[in-house]
Amino acid sequence: MTLKGRTAVVTGGAGGLGCEMVRALAAEGARVFVLERNSEAAQSLVESIATGPQGGGGAEFVECDLSDIEGTQAIARRIVSVCGGVDILVNNAAIYPSKPIHEYSISEYRAVQRVNVEAGVALVQALTPAMMERRWGRIVNIASITFYGGWANLMPYVVSKGSLVGLTRSLARELGQYGITVNAISPGAFPTDAEKIHPDPEGYTRFVLDHQSIKRRGSPRDIAETILFLVSDRSAFITGQTINVDGGWVMN
């Protein structure tokens, strides 16, 4: 197990992509704290890991409203006080309202930035001091290929994902001297609840496969495997990068 003895925090860990992230980290020996609002889904995930194959780490649900920045930081500091520090942070949670630009209020725009970006910054501020002291840490921000394509009707979301790419680069430059790597993953189109915003699911699947080089739909496990690489010692000399996990849709 590559992560035995490590502690991880995953936001939105009970969501479509998050579940596999949590399962993969726990299977490799990490103790995973799942920061979520959806208590029913999170509890079910935690219980399934607890009753699954033995020998890995475990998962614990921590109810957290990421729109409450001060509350989120307080929760993170409590986790640090209990564990003595967190080794891995995965900023995965996001909200994604969809409508034309003129229909967004400024408060709606700010709400997306607060959850998708500011909560991640708050967690970094709370968790990195212990990483710096230990001279080891891994941060993975979940961006999106929509940042490259600038998709219509998702303006606040696309802006937030671009901000995460910038955050990744800035943190990598600042924290590298402490043995902390910071990278981002840009998922392509995955068949999760996020796709429910599309009115024609079958047509959207055809659209996705037409654009991808690999002619299958992605699986949340594809993201989880990339995370396992980025949080392990196998990627110790990789930082500040954004990796597209999209079946060869966007190439840059």
SSE inventory with pairings:
Layout: E1 7-11, H1 18-27, E2 31-36, H2 39-50, E3 58-63, H3 69-83, E4 88-91, H4 106-134, E5 137-142, H5 146-149, H6 155-175, E6 180-187, H7 201-211, H8 220-230, E7 242-245
Parallel strand pairs: 1-2, 1-4, 2-3, 4-5, 5-6, 6-7
Helix pairs in contact: 1-8, 3-4, 4-6
Description of the structure:
With 252 residues, the chain is of the alpha/beta class. It has eight helices and seven strands; from the N terminus they run E-H-E-H-E-H-E-H-E-H-H-E-H-H-E. Strands 3-2-1-4-5-6-7 form a seven-stranded parallel β-sheet, with helices on both faces. Helix 1 crosses helix 8, helix 3 packs parallel to helix 4 and helix 4 runs parallel beside helix 6. The protein is globular. The model has no long low-confidence stretch (mean pLDDT 93).
Q: Which superfamily, in CATH terms, is the homologous superfamily?
A: NAD(P)-binding Rossmann-like Domain
Q: What is the C-level CATH assignment? A: Alpha Beta
Percent of residues in helices: 40-55%
Q: Give the ordered list of helices and strands.
A: EHEHEHEHEHHEHHE
Overall, the morphology is: globular
**What's the count of strands?**
7
Number of helices: 8
Rg, alpha carbons = 17 Å
Count of domain modules: 1
- Strand content bin: 15-25%
Proper CATH architecture? 3-Layer(aba) Sandwich
Query: Which structural class is indicated by helix and strand composition?
Result: alpha/beta
Sheet bearing the most strands, described? 7 strands, parallel
CATH topology value: Rossmann fold
Distance between the termini: 33 Å
Q: Which stretches of 5+ consecutive residues score pLDDT under 50?
A: none
What is the mean predicted local confidence, pLDDT?
A: 93
Strand order of the largest sheet: 3-2-1-4-5-6-7
